Amino acid sequence: MKSACLSLLLVSVCWALPFRQSGFLDFMMEDEPTSGDGPDLPGSRKPKIPKITEESDKDLMPDGPEGPFCPFRCQCHLRVSQCSDLGLKAVPEKIPVDTTLLDLQNNKITEIKENDFKGLKGLQTLILVNNKITIIHAKAFSSMVNLERLYLSKNLLKEVPSNIPKSLQELRIHENQITKIKKTSFSGMANVIVMELGSNPLSSNGVDNGAFTDLKRVSYIRIADTNITSIPKGLPSSLFELHLDGNKITKVTAESLKGLKHLSKLGLSHNEISVVENGSLANVPHLRELHLDSNALTAIPSGLPEHKYIQVIYLHANKIAAVGTEDFCPPGYNTKKAMYSGISLFSNPVSYWEIQPITFRCVFDRSAIQLGNYRKK
Ligand SMILES: *[C@@H]1O[C@H](CO)[C@@H](O)[C@H](O)[C@H]1NC(C)=O
Ligand SMILES: *[C@@H]1O[C@H](CO)[C@@H](O)[C@H](O)[C@H]1NC(C)=O
């Protein structure tokens, strides 16, 4: 699974899974085998493999005259240098210069120093997930002219590192301590396709206007579970998926969605949205899926009957007190509108027996509607 995630961008099945290294190195970790060595006689102690100390992290183990170096306890094979789950407190020295994938996740690295990755010109993927990194030297990435994927999630970073290589296509930096996305944080990063920034302590206006403007190719942005109160301004028109769930956004303005002509999925669940301005949906003509559940809406957003492609709309757990027969579907039955495949309305203060069946005349199947006060099945 992991290698599939690494080699394929935009594989949604990978996003759904928590980022966790599979047991590639697990067999290396078993210092004391529990079986297979015969009975454990009292007094006859098995030789113990000594615990590796911090000092020995820097030791090198030559591969013999024919092979290149590989840092002690790492595995270097086919240009992949695997150094995850080793309790490392620093980036090991002498990483093979032809490495294209360097995996350092699940260690205890606290700092990335200026020369830690020096000379790694061929590096395409750098995985530093789940360490204790607080500082990344401003020149630490300067050798990596080919870097495409940088995974920095689950660290203690207070800001987006400066001087990220312009070749980068994917940045994952969720679950850090970043308080501000600055206008200059991503300047010139025209190759980025995937950006994951969620679960950082971003305050109300924690994202500067235009912070994403330079990401001309970006397809996926996720900023979930922060304290931002509005949809970031100046999002690129290339955007295909925008996930802003679990924030403190109070309204959807038409202006904030202007120009997002490719947007297909918009996630705004678990916010504090009371209003979706008229004209908002018209600004995202290719939207297929809209999640507005667990907000403070008092009415069905306007513009649904005119929208050509929307198929899924989640509106459950809001304060919607009335649903009219013209709220979802255009008048009449013969329409060019895509049929809905999912509408949820449960947990709203509307009595579902008061909603007329004709309201859902452009829904693919009756089972696509979740109306009652609890979800069936
Ligand atoms: C959001 O703000 C509240 C109140 O100030 C704070 O307790 C919480 O930790 C903040 N959450 C994030 C993700 O920053
Ligand atoms: C939004 O549209 C609804 C119905 O289409 C209309 O009743 C309402 O006055 C409009 N609101 C604004 C602020 O234009």
UniProtKB/TrEMBL annotation:
Q: Which residues form the LRRNT domain?
A: 69-101
Disulphide bonds in the chain: C70-C76, C74-C83, C329-C362
Instruction: Write the record's keywords in alphabetical order, separated by commas.
Output: Disulfide bond, Extracellular matrix, Glycoprotein, Leucine-rich repeat, Proteoglycan, Repeat, Secreted, Signal
According to the record, the residues making up region (Disordered) are 30-60
Where in the cell?
Secreted, Extracellular space, Extracellular matrix
Is Zinc set as a keyword in this record?
Answer: no
> What does the entry list under GO cellular component?
extracellular space
> InterPro entries from the xrefs?
Leu-rich_rpt, Leu-rich_rpt_typical-subtyp, LRR_dom_sf, LRRNT, SLRP, SLRP_I_decor/aspor/byglycan
In terms of SMART domains, this protein maps to:
LRR_TYP (SM00369), LRRNT (SM00013)
The positions making up the signal sequence are: 1-16
Keyword Glycoprotein appears in the UniProt entry: yes
Q: Where is the composition biased (Basic and acidic residues)?
A: 51-60
Whom does it interact with, and what assembly results?
Answer: Binds to type I and type II collagen, fibronectin and TGF-beta. Forms a ternary complex with MFAP2 and ELN.
What this chain does, per the record?
May affect the rate of fibrils formation.
The record's family statement is:
Belongs to the small leucine-rich proteoglycan (SLRP) family. SLRP class I subfamily.
| Protein name in the entry | Decorin
